[in-house]
């Protein structure tokens, strides 16, 4: 039986690949694992049936037999641990790839989400104009650190891994801000992720939801 993931019935990102189901779709595509998608509305996400899968009423969720998971990072790690191609075989390299997964969602994504909050949820507050540059500078600090670590290599630690998948997925949220352009090697890194065939298939599948085309996986 193929696993089933949940995704927005009407995504706030209008199909740009920023919703977190994109990371899971990408991992499944990299693994060559067929999957099913169940679309949920914002109201359905707060109902008992969905809350039984995701206690915080969000997406994505992942169902495979008796296993139910939530949180995109945990789902991608599960996929990577059970399918070849997303984690190195060598133990230390494998541990480092997992460390980069955590870094993506804990260290890098946090200030990026602060930027979205500052712009859209707090943009009308009297102190918003003063706070926004502070938030953007925090992101710049993280990008400079990431840029220094990446250097002139294609990926974070040898071959492409789930660490890169999660990091690129997080950094995609910055494309419209122009901040990525300040670190050309990081911008090129994100672009490399976007050229991967598995990314393209995952992107097309989630975009099809917004454009009303048949789902493919």
Description of the molecule:
- The chain is α+β, with helices and mostly antiparallel strands and 217 residues long.
- Helices cover 54% and strands 8% of the residues.
- Strands 2-1-3-4 form a four-stranded mixed β-sheet, with helices on one face.
- Strand 1, helix 1 and strand 2 form a beta-alpha-beta unit.
- The longest helix is centred in the middle third of the chain and has 31 residues.
Spatial separation of the terminal alpha carbons: 14 Å
Report the β-strand fraction as a percent range.
Answer: 5-15%
SS summary, helix count: 8
E-strand count: 4
Task: Report the CATH C-level class of the largest domain.
Answer: Mainly Alpha
Q: Please tell me the overall pLDDT.
A: 91
Biggest sheet statistics: 4 strands, mixed
Shape: globular
**In terms of structural class, how would the helical and strand content be classed?**
alpha+beta
Can you tell me the CATH topology of the largest domain? Glutathione S-transferase Yfyf (Class Pi), Chain A, domain 2
Computed CA radius of gyration, to the nearest angstrom: 17 Å
Q: What is the N-to-C succession of helices and strands?
A: EHEHEEHHHHHH
What's the architecture of the largest domain, going by CATH?
A: Up-down Bundle
| Unreliable stretches | none
Q: What topology, given as strand order, has the largest sheet?
A: 2-1-3-4
Helix share bin: 40-55%
Count of domains: 2
